[in-house]
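Hi team,

Below is the intake form for CBM-cenC domain-containing protein from Caulobacter rhizosphaerae. Please confirm the fields before the structure is written into the shared record.

FORM ID: S-0412
PROTEIN: CBM-cenC domain-containing protein
ORGANISM: Caulobacter rhizosphaerae
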Amino acid sequence: MTKIAILAAVAALSLSATAPLTAKAAQPAAQGIMKYAINKPSIAWNVNGTGQTNAPVKDKAVIGGAGVRIQVTAPAPDKPWEDSAGQGVDGKITKGDVVTVAFWAKAEPVDGGPATATINWVGVHQSVAPWSGIVTGQVETIGGDWKMYTFSGRAGMDAEKGAAAVTLQLGSAKQTVVLGPLFVLDFGPNYDPSMAK
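The structure came back. Fields below:
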């Protein structure tokens, strides 16, 4: 499955996650890719940090019609993890599996500047100490329009069901980012991760 096919299928999954049951039957790409999902696609972001404020927003321009606006007002460039957003991963991950993280996001202007934001680290990691990374990556600069951002990698360790989480580090700059639905897919060990880049 190529990156374009993954994006198309995840986009279809995004639509089917909020569509009536009858519409779901018309989404074969979503039905096919759903077998790889190891989370329940959601906007239930847990936002942490004292340098930020956050609130739910309604926005018909994103799949699902809602998101979470996070305003980082007191950044800590040397400790960007201090302000973060995350969600739990329900499924099991086996070392060597190819895992893809896909999430919708957009930036909003701050102090009259451009609509850009930086998420300098994205990772699937253990959900308890020592918080070791299972699959980690970086995301390009977030722009002012809704877009699906993805990264893929091969799991460096196992995680039992419910023992992993996804985190986005947001505290590197004064910025406003709006996060939409998150998808975590586990393609198993035989998928070529370069196909999703």
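SUMMARY LINE: Residues 37-196 form a domain with the Jelly Rolls fold (CATH 2.60.120.260).

Thanks, M.
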